[in-house]
Amino acid sequence: MEDNEEINPDGSTVPKQDAVDEANSNVDSDIVREVPDEAAPSPLACRLSEVKVPSESEEGFTSEVDPGERRGFVKFLCVLIGGIVSAVPFGAGIWAYLNPLTRETEVGGDGFVKITSLDAIPADGTPAKFSVIADKEDAWNKFKNISVGAIYLRKEAGKVKALHTVCPHLGCFIDYRSGKNDFFCPCHNSNFKLDGSIVSGVSPRPMDPLKIEIRNKVEVWVKFQNFQPGHDHPIPLS
Amino acid sequence: MKALINWIDHRTGIRSLTKEALFENIPGGSRWRYVWGSTLTFALFVQFVTGVFLWMGYSASSGDAWESVNYIQNEMTGGWLLRGIHHWMAQAMPILLLLHLMQVLVDGAYKAPREVNFWFGVILLMLVLALSLTGYLLPWDQKGYWATKVATNLANLVPFIGPEIQKLVVGGTDYGHHTLTRFFALHAGVLPALIVLLVVGHIYLFRRHGITPAEPRKKKDAYFWPDQVFKDAVACLAVMATVLFFVIWYHGAHLSSPADPSEPFSAARPDWYFLYLFQFLKLPVFAGDKEIWGAIYIPSIFVGLICLMPFFGKWKVGHFFNVGVMFAFLGGAGALTYLAKHEDVSGPNSAVYLKALLDNERDARRAIELARHEGIETTALNLLKTDPKTQGPKLFAQHCASCHRYDGHDGLAHSLLDAKSLDDLKRRTSSLKRFASSDSVHPDWLARLKDSGNTNDWQTVQAILNANIEGVYEVIAGTKFKEAPSAPDLKGFASRQWIMELLKPEMYISNRFFGGTAHKDGDMYRRFLNRKVIKYDDEEKEMLKLVALALSAEAKLPLQVNTDKADEELIQQGVDHLIDDISCINCHAFQEPDPDVEGPDLTGYGSRQWIIEFVKNPEHEKFYPESNDRMPSFGKKNILTEKEIGLIADWIRDDYYKAPNSPITH
């Protein structure tokens, strides 16, 4: 409790008289406050402890002027109208803010993106990183042929395997460590084998495999998509 | 609940604060005339909330501003509502400010000891106007761009440091990224912060001195709560309802076409509450080096006078002087605003103004539909600059329309899709009479109107629109021509109908085709149309028709793709007739080069490549090596680039994206 307050019997606090007086002394002394009617309290009076502040009333306040049901209704209307007009700008703002939830991302064609040619992938089975160049819709922009992500491609027993570079744990970029010949996420030290399976660390699932197609004999096409982090199986982001 | 409030109250004193706020005494009781301060606070609150949410979708760079605002307005769910509330509340604020100021003046609430609070109010007024000015530029559309340019150029007039001030405001010598980042920081950061500080001070001072009652007092004193609060709340509700009415009526706020430094916008005007200043500067007394008086000295002196009003107000006569000055100002500003509006829609230059509005509306709609359909890879302006539908007519009007026509006009006639788009214009200009009866209307179009028996004015347009509400209308055209057409009308060039008309002898020598050229005395007319075709029997006429089909198929017009495919056999017959029976190849090359003939090559006639090559050099041996009339070699002489010729060709060939319906949802 503050020093300059005192508690009323009903638990509400009002300023101590001396605190009020101190506040009043700040008021410009040459303002002559007119109090034309006995019934109407002066502006200062309402600050004094004599003013009853029955806490049972709905809004917590009543005045001694013209009590009754009508005033209760007027107060109710004040709160109602105040609530409505204040809700309008928030409503419009929140509606627009929620737009991303209802906006669907368009996927052009079958979702496969041409990455490289077979010859560009090392024959000895070491993984190589490739950028994924595709069209991207970014709010009001539609970019053509820009980087949208990266993948690791690796030859394994004559077949090409594709792994996402994004860690399934929390989305950091996974490095290939040539010295240890493994994958390593530098954020939380998750360690993966070349086939993507977990060696150690906190990742909830192995590295995300991507569908691959060889078209026209040498072209490597990958169905590039991103997945939600943190789950034990890949769930595509849409 | 009570315990919780008590707990909080012990630590914050919230109860006494609320009490302090609510139990302000109002001498003479609550009155409707006291509501304006509260409505202004409410308006500021709405602007803060909607502004912050708009901020989440806005990008302040010259390549993204229009694009992001368009995205908010036309792509984001509820974006139009959000932007609409922000825009229309901004329109309401000057009115509320004025009402507040006048109430304060008339009731004498500005007099001692309230001078400082009055000055706070005057500063707040200036700050709100600064918010309007900075906000107007942010969408980076033609309207805001050109109007704000005028405003910042006025900064140049400030004595001694004008050019430096302008450079600082603009963020360089020319408008660009930094103009937007600076304006946005002012609009969303500096000005709102200053306003919050001053509003707090304003309300503190107001409470310190109490309300100045309007005399005579009709009722007993009362507290602020709940009677005055109720009146304030109702007034806020009325303001919000009015704003929402406009928001829904206009479906948000208007966005004109993307800012383009190379494209004039003759209808650029400041927001309506600055129009009186705009009109003021048009007064002849401020011509030349006197402009600084109208733009800076007189407004500054007037603001200074307002600031001195509390001192004059000490005397009764001074008070009357103050109130009289403000009413005189209002009268003058109102008259100037009316004059500005009146000049725009009915003055001697109104045709220019209205035409600019129409042109801009066309570009704005096109930019929006292209942004939606093609997507913006660089900027929306670039979409417009590479769009045949937008650039074709402009280039045609500038380079071709001195001889050619496009459906009787210079290419720039407006085809308004429906009655609704006309209603839009009517709402935005508050007059459409002029659209149908001024120089902005194309004579050919008026001639068409004559059939309806009434060429008078807008009512005719309205009547026609009401009668054919489903149709497509060509309404307003570009400029009136000084001369009659002297080369073919190229609307539908190389289409079946166009070629069939061309092959009618009487049409060939009419103004629609070659009547105005030397070709009307050429071999095509003298030795073919007027000697042979004129005597054709029905069978030969049928063959000629097939030739027209075959020739038209050479153009591969997008509009005819399907019919050409369906008529493949007929077209093949036409090709045979073209070569054998009708023997076009006597004078024209077809399918293979023929250096001996004089007429233009018919291989690929009307195709994009054919048109480009022809326009580049009509005197090329493929076309009119000997008999070119007056057509300049646009490419050879570097009058037009190949890209520009391509835009014209694509436009004439109707080869561009057509939106199924307007992207603006109404």
Q: How many H/I helices of chain A?
A: 3
> Biggest sheet of chain B, in brief?
2 strands, antiparallel
Instruction: Please give the CATH architecture of the largest domain in chain B.
Output: Up-down Bundle
Number of domains of chain A: 3
Radius of gyration of chain A (Å)? 35 Å
CATH architecture of the largest domain in chain A: 3-layer Sandwich
Subunit organisation of the chains: heterodimer
Question: Could you say which overall geometry of chain A the principal axes of the C-alpha atoms support?
Answer: elongated
Tally the structural domains of chain B: 2
For the secondary structure, the number of strands of chain A is 13
Give the rounded overall mean pLDDT of chain B.
87
Order of secondary-structure elements of chain A: EEHHHEEEEEEEEEEE
By secondary-structure content and strand pairing, the structural class of chain B works out as: mainly alpha
Number of helices of chain B: 28
How large a portion of the residues of chain A is in β-strands, by DSSP E? 25-35%
CATH top-level class of the largest domain in chain B: Mainly Alpha
Walkthrough of the structure:
The complex is a heterodimer of chains A (238) and B (666). By secondary structure, chain A is α+β, with helices and mostly antiparallel strands. Chain A has 3 domains: 1-56, no CATH class; 68-103; 112-223, 3-layer Sandwich (Rieske Iron-sulfur Protein). Chain A has 3 helices and 13 strands; from the N terminus they run ββαααβββββββββββ. In chain A, a hairpin with a 3-residue loop joins strand 12 and strand 13. Chain A is elongated. Chain B is an all-alpha fold and 666 residues long. Chain B folds into 2 domains: 2-214 and 222-346, Cytochrome Bc1 Complex, Chain C; 496-652, no CATH class. Chain B contains 28 helices and 4 strands. In chain B, the strands form 2 sheets. Chain B has a two-stranded antiparallel ribbon with strand order 1-2. In chain B, strands 3-4 form a two-stranded antiparallel ribbon. Chain B starts with a helix and ends in a 14-residue tail after the last helix. Chains A and B meet through strand 2, helix 2 and strand 5 of A and helix 1, helix 2, helix 3, helix 4 and helix 5 of B.
